Amino acid sequence: MFSVALLGNSAVVLVVAKEQALHQPMYIFLAMLALNDVALCLVIVPKALAIFWWRAEEISFQVCLAQMFFVHAFFLSESAILLAMAFDRFVAICRPLRYMAILTGTTLARIGASLVARSVCAVVPGVFLLRRLPYCRTNVIRHTYCENMGIAKLACADVTLNSAYGLAAAFLTWTPSSWWSPMSSSCGPS
């Protein structure tokens, strides 16, 4: 399944990159989603396979934090890419005559940069909150990858701030369509 995910998503990225006719916002967002999936697979699956196949169950604290950062950042960017794809379809359906004027190359670059910035800004505080904690208990994480609360539970200090941050980050990065004005409005004339 790992190979299929890598090959399939890599094929999507290569086809969109090489085929000039596919250099449109919808396909660019699809390629971004495929690239994000490739990165997410590369962050999680190799360590999980090493655990299952070779019993390589050890991971250094720094590598665990790096894995946690990338896992959470890629999950957040995936949801942001899906939101951008929804916006693309909204413009295509509700503003078809202005589609190419609204979704220019500059706009796509800004959307891409903002989704990366959103993901990084949401995840970086969690890494710093985990680094400040002292760890003196068992160092066994009951998952195949490192995640925020799994690491925090290993600390021998109060993790209330980490829990509050995790809850706040979950609420602040959630974007229901009712909060997003273009999607909640009808496709009336502009």
TrEMBL record:
The UniProt record lists the keyword Transmembrane helix: yes
Transmembrane segments: 27-53, 65-87, 107-130, 151-174
Location in or out of the cell: Membrane
PROSITE patterns: G_PROTEIN_RECEP_F1_1 (PS00237), G_PROTEIN_RECEP_F1_2 (PS50262)
Sample GO molecular function, one term: G protein-coupled receptor activity
Main location: membrane
Key words of the record: Membrane, Olfaction, Receptor, Sensory transduction, Transducer, Transmembrane, Transmembrane helix
Domain (G-protein coupled receptors family 1 profile): residue spans on this chain: 8-190
Domain of life: Eukaryota
InterPro entries attached to this UniProt entry: GPCR_Rhodpsn, GPCR_Rhodpsn_7TM, Olfact_rcpt, OR51/52/56-like
A single Gene Ontology CC term: plasma membrane
Membrane topology: Multi-pass membrane protein
Protein name from the UniProt record: Olfactory receptor 52D1-like
